[in-house]
Amino acid sequence: MKILHLNLLIFIITPWIIQFNHPISSSKKFIVVLDAGHGGRDTGNNGNGYLEKKIALTITLEIGKLLSKDREIKVIYTRKNDKYVELNKRAQIANDADADLFISVHCDAFGSSKAFGAGTFVLGLHENDRNFRVAQKENSVIFMEDDYEKKYDGFDPNNPESVISLLLMQEEYLEQSILAATSIQNSFVSVLKRKDRTVKQAGFLVLRNTYMPSVLVEAGFLTNKKEGAYLNSSKGQNSIAKAVSKAIIEYKNNINKSIENFNVYNGDIDLKVTKKISYKVQIAASKNKIGTFPYNFKGLKPIHRINNGIMYRYYYGDSKKYKNAKSDLSKAIKKGFKTAFLVAFLNGNSISIEEAKKNE
User: Has domain 2-259 been given CATH number 3.40.50.10490?
Assistant: First the structure.
């Protein structure tokens, strides 16, 4: 019950970032921020004498090199050399770039040298103790930072309950994060024939404040002698980079198709005859089913909740005229829903705003 109340509190106070806030079009490149884990005084894990920070950087730079061949993609790095970058700064770089995807590259470690295989993570609750240990290892780097208690709001990498406070920071993008992670994981398995460690959820600080779909890649285990040698080799690093870049391009193309179809009406109904058009303001999207009471949405009403089978989307207002809808949008933004946007409907089906305006 305490966890439920905390989730509800976070839902109310979190600035909502909507999934389709980064549409892909011919006028805007698909921006990928690549984050090489660790760096500088933070070496990462040193299984079998290998340096995680060095291997992660080499793989990341190669991924960027391959992605840059695609004219629709712009690549930005959080680091391009052996330097230390704070976790919050990595997220800030991605947010400032208005990125469409954030990928953080790491190498795994385990107490047993038998563990092997590549895995991908998105932000979420730890499903088991192993997931918590992976996140704990990556999050412990904050102890190297000055005033880390203040910077990370008292987050304790050693306390599983701290993760609860991270959840809804990324939940708006969970669907797309899982799609990106799944694309990468499938590429590892189908292209490289790596052991499938599947897509998992865990509480990674580096993913917490990124306002876009975000994935953390564990390329393999340095603590496994054979896999460590593979990860440290040019062949292994290039193969991993090719698999990841291929998956990112596939993800970009799939999302592009989805967004092209989103809010587009393809039916044969004569809009001028039907004319049952309405505008709503989308203010939030979440896996959680929240009561549509005004006190849950900073006093806004009416609130409509629509479920697509995966996510609940929450809308404010119901206007028949575009100018009235714009007024609703302004009100929602003033209330704190900074990334709210208008959605038009025809008989309950979403259509483009321009099509709706033409047929008011």
Answer: no
Nearest 10 degrees: Cα torsion 272, 280, 260, 209? 170
- Mode of pairing for the β-strands spanning 214-221 and 118-123: antiparallel
Confidence of residue 50 (pLDDT cuts 50, 70, 90): very high
- The tally of CA atoms less than 13 A away on the side-chain side of residue 169 is 19
pLDDT tens digits, 61-88: 999 999 999 999 999 999 999 999 988 8
Place of tokens 């910077």: 151
Segments making up each domain of the chain, as ranges: 2-259, 271-358
Does the structural domain 271-358 have CATH classification 4.10.240.10?
no
Q: What is the pLDDT of residues 263-292, one digit of tens each?
A: 333 333 343 444 578 999 988 877 777 778
Give the span between the Cα atoms of 174 and 168, in whole angstroms: 9
Give 344's Cβ-side CA count (13 Å radius): 24
